[in-house]
Every structure is written in C-alpha cells, then in structure tokens.
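Researcher: Structure for this, please.
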Amino acid sequence: MDTSQKMFLLAVEEMNFTKAAHRAYVTQQCLSEHIRNLEKTLGTQLFFRTPRLQLTPSGKALYETLQQMSQLEANLHARINELEQGQVGEIRFGLNTTRARLFLPELMKAYHQRFPKVTLSVTLGDTEALMEDLLKQKLDLVLGVDAPPSTLLERIPAGEEALLVAATNSFLKRYYKGGRGWQDFHTGDAIDLRSFEPFPLAGNLNVSTVLKLAGSYLWQLDIVPKQIVSISDYDTQLNLSGQQLAATFCASFMLPAIQNQNQLHPQHEPLLALKLSGFSHPISIEILRPRQLFVPRYLEEFISLIQAHLVVWHEKIAQALA
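Model: Predicted structure, token format:
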C-alpha cells in the first residue's frame, strides 16, 4: 500500500483532512495533494467536500478494497513472524466488561499454559462499537452478542443465551396487578410482565444489544420502559436491583454475577434471575473476526478455547435456570 492510499485511509477514519494530516505528521496541504493525486490516478472523485466531508460511491469502494489489502499485508507479516519466531504474538480481543470479569481470567489461565509467549490486549465495550474497531483492524477478535450482519466479518458460532430480568420478590410485588393472589418467584421461573405496572429499570448508558432486545420485547407488550438509572456496568445495575430500587435486563451469561451479588450482600433479599414469558428470541453469541487467508495457530487455538469454555459455561447456566 503506497503513501497516498495510507493518507486516504486516515482521511476516511477522521473524516477531517486537518485531523488526518495531524495523525500523519504532515501538513493539510500535503495530505490534500495525496488525495488529489489518488483521484487523478483513479479518474474519479473520492470525497464530497461540501457541505461536509463524505465518501463518494467510488470512495467507499476504494476504502473497502484498501481494508482488504491492509488485512492481507497484516496476514503476511503474521505468517512470516510465525515461521521465523514460532508461537509469538499478540491477540487484540474485544468483549463486554462484565463478561471479561467473569470469563476471561479462567480462559487466560488455560491459554497461557499453552502459549506463554502470546500476549492478550483487551478492549471493553458493546458489540457494535467493538465491531467498528474490528473493521478498522484495531482488534483481531470480538466476542459478539447478537451482532448485526457484516459481509466483511467471519462469524464463528459460540452458543446461545436467553434474556432475563433480575429483581427481588418484594420489588416485583409492589408493582403486581394480576388477578390472582401473589406467589413468590424463584430463579428460573418465567414472569409475565403484563401482570405488572411498569417498574423502574437500571440499564446501560449507551445503546446495547440487551437494551435493544428488552426495548423490543416491552414494545410488543405495549409497555413503556422507565429507565431511572443509566450506567454501563452490570455490577452496579445488579446492586441497585438487589437494593430494590430497580430491575435489570441481562443475558443469561450474567447469572454468576447475580449469584455474586447475593453472596456479597447476604443482608439483602435474594436477587432472582427470571425468564420472560413469551420471549423466544435467543441471544446469539459469536466470535467475530475479519475474513482472512492466514490465521496464526495461536489465534486458532484461542478461538477453540473460547468455544470450549463457553460450552461449559452455558451448560452450567442452563442447569441453574432449569
């Protein structure tokens, strides 16, 4: 990839010539000249410059092609590195914060025993934001939760999860409007939210996969959600739910976090993990990676280990919710 093409990629990432030039340590005039030369060579306009900087259809086609070229170069370097040095490298991995806390230590311990010279760099965030970093080649893998479609990514199945609501019996009883007398719930029971007045929720600050699924489910039931606390940290959300200030929607993967809350706060009424009556959409868990020709053995082994650990994890949760 030549200098003009690299300048073009920076300009696309920033969508601002001044910022792109600053990242490239050149003047804006120099960067603009590279873009003009590229447009002249290809015989097409790559950017709409007014009213704001945007890619033209030709620019989008070039961007996708250069991303593929960049991935091929990265694959070549990785393959040469593996041939020259053996199993040495770095894995840049993206996943949700709470999933990392619950799942990563045990996974890394097993992996490090096999590949002690491979380092792991972890980026925390929601699936859609992490997918953007994956497409920009800032990450090698993402543990995706109901990831949106992308033709540029390979999707490796890693199990399915259920959408749950976490709350205490006392909290739910305050909002119960069902015709029958109240009966306490137990973890794993199904709850029909139509039998309740809309109750306060604690949820993520930014739009997340779980937030979208829960919103869609509530919309189908003609329930307007009342999110009173927005924080992108499940431990805090569950703590608030344990104190009977709100309920929290979460994936079934988070059951151990709910159990941890109960162990940490034995003075509180137990927090329950309840299935949702009428909700049949499984949460798809996938390992996402760019489509590439060469995958180092240490990366293939890491993917296989994730899959194996998730099988065990999901089986334990299914038993606890049965």
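Researcher: Any notable elements?
Model: The domain at 87-150+291-314 is CATH 3.40.190.10 (D-Maltodextrin-Binding Protein; domain 2). The mean pLDDT is 91.
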